[in-house]
Amino acid sequence: MASAQRPFVRRFLLACCLLLATACDEKSPTGPTVPLNEPFTLAPGETALLPPGGVQILFVGVTGDSRCPADALCIQLGDAAVRLRVVDAGVTRDHELHTDRSRPTSFTHRDLHVELMQLQPYPFSSRVIQPSDYRATIVVRR
After folding, report:
1. Could you tell me if residue 53 is inside a domain?
2. For residue 8, what pLDDT is reported?
3. 8, 92, 97, 135: most buried by Cβ count inside 10 Å?
C-alpha cells in the first residue's frame, strides 16, 4: 500500500513546488513595451517595459500634490511629486520627480534619461483628485 501512495505524494510535492515557484516570480512583465523617445502615459500601479534589456518603469503614485488649482489665483504654482520605480536585472530603485521645473523632473538610469513630462488631472478647487485618477506622461531617451 505504501508503494501505491508514492506516485501521488510525488505529484503532490511537484505541484506544490510549481505553485510556490510561480507565486514568487517577480520578474514577469505586466505592462506594454514602449518605444524610446516617445511619450507614454501610466496610471498608478502600471508598468512599462523599455527595449532592449527589459528595464521596467512602474508609476508607484503621487506622493504629494500642492499645485495651484486651475480655478484659483495663487502666489505660487505649487508642485506635485511623482514616485517612479525602476526595475532592472532584479535591482529596484525609486525616484521622485516633480512638476515644478525648479526641482528634479528627470533622472538617468544607465544610458536612459527618464523625464516626467506631465501629470494629469490638473487640480480644481471644487474637485478632489483620487489617487487612482492620476496619469503620468513620461518620455525615455537614450
Report:
1. yes
2. 55
3. 97
Structure-block grid coordinates of residue 59: 508609476
Task: Output the pLDDT for position 27.
Answer: 42
Mean pLDDT by 10 residues, the chain (142 residues): 54 46 44 90 95 88 95 91 94 95 92 95 93 96 90
Q: What grid cell was written down for 26?
A: 517577480
DSSP secondary structure string for all residues of 104-115: --EEEETTEEEE
Element holding 11 (H helix, E strand): helix 2-23
Q: Report the pLDDT value the prediction gives residue 134, as an integer from 0 to 100.
A: 97
Q: Which long-range contacts (CB under 8 A, 24 or more apart) does 32-39 make?
A: 34/140, 36/112, 36/140, 36/141, 36/142, 37/139, 37/140, 37/141, 37/142, 38/139, 39/117, 39/137, 39/138, 39/139
What is the residue range of 107's domain?
32-141
**CATH number for position 84:** 2.60.98
- Are the C-beta atoms of residues 98 and 118 closer than 8 Å to each other? no
pLDDT at 59 (0 to 100) = 97
